[in-house]
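=== RUN LOG ===
request id: a7f3
mode: sequence -> structure
chains: 1
length: 528
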Amino acid sequence: MSWHPFNRNPADQKRTLLRALVNTSVGILAIITVSCSSFPLDHTKTASVALKTPPSTGVSGIFERAAAQHPGESGFAIVPGNREAFTDRMALADFAQKTLDVQYFIWSGDTVGRMMADHVIKAAERGVRVRFLLDDINFKKRDSAAASMNAHPNIEVRIFNPHKHRSLRALEFGANFKRLNKRMHNKTMTMDNSCVIVGGRNIADEYFGLGEEQNNRDLDIVAVGPIVRDISETFDEFWNSPAAVPIESLVDKTYRIEDFRRELATMRSRIDPSLYPFPLEEDLKSLRTRLNTVASRLTWSRAEVIHDTFKSMKNLTIEETVAGQLGRQIREAKKELIIESAYFVMRDEEVEFCRSLTNRGVKVRVLTNSLASNNVIAAQAGHAKRRKPLVETGVDLYELRPDATSVKEFVAPQGKNSISTLHTKALVIDGKKAFVGSYNLDPRSAEINSEIGIMVYSPAFAGKVKAFLDEGISPGNAYHVSVDDAGQLKWETLVNGQLKTWSKDPETSAFQRFKSGVIGLLPIENQL
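=== RESULT ===
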C-alpha cells in the first residue's frame, strides 16, 4: 500500500498533528515575541490637547459663570441612578459646542453603546471635535467599525495599549503578558473642558439597567469648574502617550467618509429604542430647562483629582499612584472609614492595616460583592481568602445580595430576572471627604491598571455619598458577614421581614463554592 496520511495509524496521525500544532504555535509565538518586544507599535500621530478656554455661551457658559461665583472651588453632584447616569452622558454629547473627550475601559456595541455613540456622532456632525480613547480589552472584531468612525473629519479614535496581531490576541497576550496585562481602567467623559462625568460606569447595558443577565449598582460624579481642567490634563497625557495608538495604524486598509456613512447607517439600523424604557428626549428637554437650577444645587468645594500617570503604569516607583495617594488619605482617618468596592481583595499586610485602624477606634465598614453577585469569580476567590481574618480585625463587612432591591428597582423590563452586581468604587473618610472613581481596592487597581477618581473635601458632599453607601447595606440589599460563637463565618439578612442566616456563601451552589476555593489556591493574587 502506498503511503498516504489518511492510511496511517490513528495514533500516529494524532502525534503528527500534535507535533505540527506545537511547531506552528512555537513559530507564531516566536514571531509575535520578536515583533512585540518593543513598544510602542509603529505609528504616527499628531499631538492634541484639551480646549484651552471653555465657551462662555450655552451650557458651558452656565457652568463657568456658576464656577466664577466660587473662586478656588469646583461644583459636584453624585449620579447614583441608571436613568440619570445615561441622561447626563447623553446631555454632554448633545450640549457640547466645541469638544468631547471620551475615555473608557469598555464601550460595548449594545443598546447603550449604540445610542450613546449615535449622540456623540451627531455632535461631531455639527462641528464638535471628538476624541475617543478606548482600552483594547473589548475591541475584538471591532476595528473596522472604529476605523470607519475615525474617517469622519471631526472624530479621532485611539486604542490604548493594543494587541498588534489583531487576529492572534490570545497568543500575543501570552507572549507579551507584561505589556498587555496593563490596562487603562479610566472612565471619564468631558464636554468643552467645562463639565465631566467620572466614576465607575463603563458604556454597556448592564451599567445603566438594561442588562438581561446582570445589572450593576454603581456611582458617578458630575463635576464642573477648575477640577475639569485637571481631568483634561490626565486625558491629554494618556491621549498623547506612546500607548495610545491611532485606530488607522491597526487596520490594513484606508477608511474613507463613505465607510463612515455605511457604518453609521448600519449602527442606526440596529438601535432598538424600545429596549431603553425611559423617555430620553423628555429627560434631555427637562434637563435643558433646569440647567440654571442644576448649577445652583451643586456642592461647591475644594477637590483633588487622584490618578495614575502613564509613567506610573510603567514603573510604580517613578511617580505616586492612586494606591499611594488613597492610602495616605485613609491613614489619616480618625473616626470612620466607609468603603463600597466591587472587588475587595486584601492581602495580609492590608488586613493588618485594617486591624491598626480598628485598634485605634476607627470604625471600618465595607460593602463588596458576594459570591452570588460577583461577576468575576477570581476576584471573589481572592476576597474569600482573607474574609474571616478581616472580620476578626473588627471590620464591619457586608456583601451584596444577588437580588438587591436598590438595583432591581431601576432596571428595564428585560432585566427583571437579572442578577444584581456591585460595581461602585467609593469611600468616605470621617464624614468629611469622599472619593468616587474607577479604583477598586484590589492588587490589579493598585499595581497594574491605570485608575482615576476625585476626592472631594466637603462634609456636605461626603454626606450625600454616605447616604448612597448606607442604602447599599440595608437588609434588602446586602448580607451582613460576621463570625459566630464557634468561630465560623455566617451571613445574615432579612427575607420577607424574617432574619435568615447562612453558614455558607448564600444563594450559591456547591460547584460555585468549589471553583472559588480552587481559584483561591492559585498563586495569582497579585493579578486580581
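=== NOTES ===
The chain has a mean pLDDT of 91.
The longest strand covers residues 129-135.
=== END ===
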